[in-house]
Amino acid sequence: MSQSLQLLTPNPTFSFPHHPSPKPIFHSYSPIISKSNLSLRSQHHPPPSHSAATDLASIEVDAVTETELKENGFRSTRRTKVVCTIGPATCGFEQLEALAVGGMNVARINMCHGTREWHKMVIERVRRLNHEKGYAVAVMMDTEGSEIHMGDLRGASSAKAEDGEIWTFSVRAFDSTLPEHTINVNYEGFAEDVKVGDELLLDGGMVRFEVIEKIGPDVKCRCTDPGLLLPRANLTFWRNGSVVREKNSMLPTISSKDWLDIDFGISEGVDFIAISFVKTAEVINHLRSYIEARSPNSDVALIAKIESIDSVKNLEEIIQVADGAMVARGDLGAQIPLEQVPATQERIVQLCRQLNKPVIVASQLLESMIEYPTPTRAEVADVSEAVRQRADALMLSGESAMGQFPEKALTVLRSVSLRIERWWREQKQYETIAQPSIGTSHSENISEEICNSAAKMANILEVDALFVFTKTGHMASLLSRCRPDCPIFAFTTTPSVRRRLNLQWGLIPFRLSFSDDMETNLNKTFSLLKARNLIKSGDLVIAVSDMMQSIQVMNVP
Ligand SMILES: Nc1ncnc2c1ncn2[C@@H]1O[C@H](COP(=O)(O)OP(=O)(O)O)[C@@H](O)[C@H]1O
Ligand SMILES: C=C(OP(=O)(O)O)C(=O)O
Ligand SMILES: [K+]
Ligand SMILES: [Mg+2]
């Protein structure tokens, strides 16, 4: 038995095309909702017309989600997603599988490090894992970007800079061995541009030096804040309390190496490209046109990394055109005063939510776990705050790429997220902040209102799950944006959409072939999910879809 609110449209079977193409516009609003076709009605579902057994293979959900749902029920599934950077500590097939088992939603490869062959191998392993074990782990490629950074350490994994030591930063080309206390800089004009008295910040300020002397291509510096230097760490220089950025702003956001990496990413079919050091919306538009021209059928989402002063200044226009954003606090903390990072994070998270773009909070979440098996209390508080802000996803960097405890770090993110999410539900802290309307056509506005209402009803009626049948993922993200109290089962026909939805808050993406007929879809879904013990008779569900603009409330038969 179900109750449904149907908003009948002139074309009830349209589906949303993929962003950013324009959505169909309905010319008149008034005939869409009238007294006669805005109805709350009860209906009796016929028994499922086909045997569940024959269709069992046609619903795809990963083993971890399945176990989580069976063991703990809908309420306790994790809503906050996790991105893990893959590196030497986690690139083996078993290690990747352990991360997937631990709840990794997206595997990130950072093009700053490793060779293309290495990245190709990682992508293939993730794909194999998905294929063989039913996961939907998405792959994110993160560009190097053309900011200034130090060279590698000729094989050494790190070097320690002690207080007061004199180090040489040089643009010279050295052969295989670097002289002691010497660091290569990738930017030709470096020796000319720095001045005696400038402060050099490495790795987002983790290690600091003061420039004391310039000798041709060599710059002698004294270490003022000791620490561990990591290969290819980023480098900024500061003068009179602010970052010197004229030079950086002349470098292209996407370097020639980045373009080759992007070609590589497209041909490997990565799900997300994260663009480092975005400064303007234009660079995202440019990249999008490039990808569309080069590979019209590719389904790759563009994530703008907010990590420079310019990106903070142009935040809204950048997020408008991107498919998502990353609060890349590592570099951000080297470009704006550290004490401004928390407020900037909160602003980015809120803005992304308003504009319906997934947002990732990244860098140093559990930094101490690179070396130690337990996090600091302060790190746990930082993770909690990101979860409390309802960011879509948290990201591990060094903790999973080269740390000693990648799986433990993932466990901490998972348990802290679950705890904060539960606390927040127990407090009945529903998200009451009304989100602004973002639709640009009647049909978009209707979809938005349907999702807002469905989420609100789900909270008030305390339903067990929201179901959304979506071809492009758009309706699923509109529901996720409401941050409802129950999980959202997102059914989609395309594997790439399923992987993409894996980055978004509260969505449990399933792959399922379905038709434009909601009645049939619901019956099929219920019988498939019941056969796998993922739902049971009596569970209360609200279903929406982007084929038919309706809200249906029903108990699972
Ligand atoms: N593909 C890789 N190969 C080797 N080391 C890597 C790789 N990816 C990441 N790392 C290591 O993990 C650290 C943290 O990763 P990440 O935060 O992505 O990079 P970065 O520190 O350059 O911003 C890096 O500094 C590097 O030491
Ligand atoms: C995520 C970041 O970028 P990357 O690790 O590529 O420097 C960051 O700077 O925080
Ligand atoms: K990068
Ligand atoms: Mg960065």
TrEMBL record:
The keyword Transmembrane helix does not apply. Residues 448-549 form the Pyruvate kinase C-terminal domain. SUPFAM superfamilies: Phosphoenolpyruvate/pyruvate domain, PK beta-barrel domain-like, PK C-terminal domain-like. GO terms for cellular component: chloroplast stroma. It catalyses: pyruvate + ATP = phosphoenolpyruvate + ADP + H(+). It comes from Lupinus luteus. Its EC number is 2.7.1.40. The lineage of its organism: Eukaryota, Viridiplantae, Streptophyta, Embryophyta, Tracheophyta. Its cofactor is Mg(2+); K(+). Coiled coil: none annotated. It is found in: Plastid, Chloroplast. This is Pyruvate kinase. It comes from the Eukaryota. GO terms for molecular function: ATP binding; kinase activity; magnesium ion binding; potassium ion binding; pyruvate kinase activity.
